Amino acid sequence: MQVNPSFRLVYVPGVTPGKWVRVWGERLPDVPLDLLAVPSGDGERTLREGGADAGLLRLPVDKDVLSAIPLYTETTVVVFPKDHWLAAAEEVAPADLAEEVVFHPLDDTLGFTADTLPGRPAIARPDSTADAIELVAANVGVLLVPQSLARLHHRKDLTYRPVAEAPQSQVALSWPQERTTDLVEEFIGIVRGRTVNSSRGRGAGQSAPEAQPKKAAAGRGKPQQQKAGAQKSGGQKTGAQKSGGPRAGSPKAGGAKAGGRGAAARRGRPKR
Q: 137: domain CATH number?
């Protein structure tokens, strides 16, 4: 197994790796997991440059360089001030935003273009989602984001509603194709919910040797059977000694034979 001093996991805003990090700590307590938070646009670059072993990123990624396993899809919401008229709705349609100024930050994670963004465009694009949130709070316009980002940038004076039929953001586990290490396989197993025994990573390698002593014990059992067989054949030899008992009693046989000659001698004496 390729030995790493630690496992480095990069993640982008809105993604919460906590539950997988806890499982990692239980399963591989001797391998530290280092978390690296980066802006949405820097996750893929960090993996390309070797700054992390794997990452929780938003799709799409360059599939020629990175492998990716989609994990879940987020609901898209629109963020606006609490006293905005949209607050009366349970769900908003893109057509409802036709007269609204809709911000399009440079770190947009929904893949909007100038042609697909609903509503009216702002004069300039905010540098980040955080900057766009500040403008929304100033009641200048509204913002469409994945629900996790709306929660991340929560403010008491803002609220949000789900948007029907809007583009959605997919979160995926990604890693460089050329660096699919055992620890990467271990983390793949964790996010997919594999047990320790079913994992193809480091944990599986540790459980394999348990079967070897049983196999070796089975191999040692054969000579014992042969030895037992030898003892059994030895018993037959002992039986042969029993069959040789008459030879041990040969004095009796010899005595009988001698007695026979004595009788013949007596019968051969002349009568007087």
A: 3.40.190.10
d(CA 62, CA 71): 17
Domain co-membership, 155 together with 20: no
Q: Across residues 264-269, what is the average pLDDT?
A: 45
Which positions ≥6 away from 133 have C-beta within 8 Å?
Answer: 79, 143, 153, 155, 158
List pLDDT tens digits, range 84-140: 999 999 999 999 999 999 999 999 999 999 999 999 999 999 999 999 999 999 999
Decide if 102 contacts 143 (C-beta within 8 A). yes
d(CA 260, CA 2): 94
Residues 20 and 151 in one domain: no
CB 147 within 8 A of CB 75: yes
pLDDT in tens, 146-162: 999 999 999 999 999 99
Q: Which domain holds residue 66?
A: 7-73+170-207
Token pair in block for residue 117: 């963004």
Q: How far is CA 79 from CA 25, 122, 135, 139, in A?
A: 36, 15, 11, 11
Instruction: State how far the Cα of 133 lies from the Cα of 83, in Å rounded to an integer.
Output: 16
Please report the pLDDT score of residue 48 as a whole number: 96
